[in-house]
Amino acid sequence: MEHYLDNAATTRVSEAAAQAALAAMTDSFGNPSSRHEAGTRAAQALKEHRAVIAKALGAQPGEVIFTSCGTESDNWAIRGAVHLNRRKGKHIITTAIEHDAVLEPCRALEREGYEVTYLKPDRMGNITVQQVADALREDTVLVSMMLVNNELGIILPVAEVSKLLKQRKSAALLHCDAVQGFLHVPFTVGALGVDLLSVSGHKVHAPKGIGALYIKNGIKLAPMIMGGHQEDNLRSGTEPTAQIAAFAAAVEEWQARGTENRMYLKELKDYAVQKLTAEIPGLELVGNGESPHILPVTLTGYKSEVVVRFLSDRGIFISSGSACHKGKPSHVFAALNLPKKQMDGVLRISFSTHNTKEDIDALTEGLKQAKDQLFTSLS
Ligand code: PLP
To answer: Are 280 and 367 in contact (CB under 8 A)?
Structure first.
């Protein structure tokens, strides 16, 4: 039996989502732009699916544009925001613990003459609104701050930043990468006060290849892709109706039990914290992230890559940090300035509602064995 505890990397597609994709591919498979009945059916389904995502975000359907993934949403938001504000300045504020989908476009903009302030977290991973206040300038045109950090599970003060920007009458647009926060942490775009917000399907039991960008009414981003005028003329290309149907189904399924799901995840995380710290001597928690699905720990003195492989051989899947970093030390843990021995041993355990306490029991046993068997090779 396998124990998949790497849900911040990606999740298993739910039955309901897979069925919805199948129906969209085989029943309502028309092109939503076609004028005949099959096209009309597909267009109607698309409208309903957009409304589901919009409702989950607390947005209007017209404010939700489907993209191919969270990375695309982040890239578009950042490029689009600075282009829109191009006459107002060339300063961007973001954090040193953003995903590369935010950091890389920011670095590219630096090469094009923008100045970017990367706010550093404290030892626990926290970033404060005061740091944004201190960095904010007349020529700041964009603040991009994630809602939940993908490695630490830290929740960032996005709503407070929005209030600050309003108080200071800043021209800066506020973008939020909510790829990890979506559904796991309750929010609406209105309560966060954001202008742009990114989400991704595959983190919430929909397939890979679908994301969305919330664009607040009145914000006129330049098109991401030009062509056949789909997605309100902002992102042309025939809509991936199967992925969209699956995304809506997964979100609807989650929303039906939103509070219970979050409580269940918190229960799993609390159980893991209690069990792992009690039974694995030397294992320590990293940071104080409150998101219910992400638990970073460190096994000081052990190489996380070796531990991850050891567990994988036993059918237990966790991560040594963000899956996007593939072996390179994570910039997020580096930003915490952890001592090298602790940093080398960082492991990320991440839960979904498909997990049970048995998965955590299996992980605990696996880690006990790892400590016993890897000890001699590393000491
Ligand atoms: N932002 C965060 C916080 C993420 O965790 C991820 C994926 O790991 C992304 C963006 C990128 O999303 P996607 O894989 O849909 O491109």
So the answer is: yes
Largest CA distance in the chain: 70
Euclidean distance between CA atoms 179 and 201, whole angstroms? 8
Strand pairing report for 316-317 and 3-4: parallel
Pocket, ligand 1, Cβ cutoff 6 A: 69-71, 74, 99, 101, 146, 150, 177, 179-180, 200, 202, 211, 324
Tell me the C-alpha to C-alpha distance, in Å, between residue 58 and each of 96, 214, 242.
Answer: 28, 10, 23
Q: How far is CA 152 from CA 141, 187, 332, 356, in A?
A: 27, 19, 8, 21
Domains of the chain: 3-12+258-373 (3.90.1150.10), 15-255 (3.40.640.10)
251-308 confidence digits (pLDDT tens): 999 999 999 999 999 999 999 999 999 999 999 999 999 999 999 999 988 999 999 9
Taking a C-beta distance cutoff of 8 angstroms, is the pair 101, 177 a contact?
Answer: yes
| 111's tokens | 């090469």
Look up the pTM and report it: 0.97
| pLDDT 10s digits, 84-129 | 999 999 999 999 999 999 999 999 999 999 999 999 999 999 999 9
Does residue 69 have an active-site annotation? no
Pocket test for ligand 1, best of 97, 150, 158, 294 (most atoms within 8 A of CB): 150
Question: What are the two backbone dihedrals, phi and then psi, of residue 170, each rounded to the nearest 5 degrees?
Answer: -75, 145
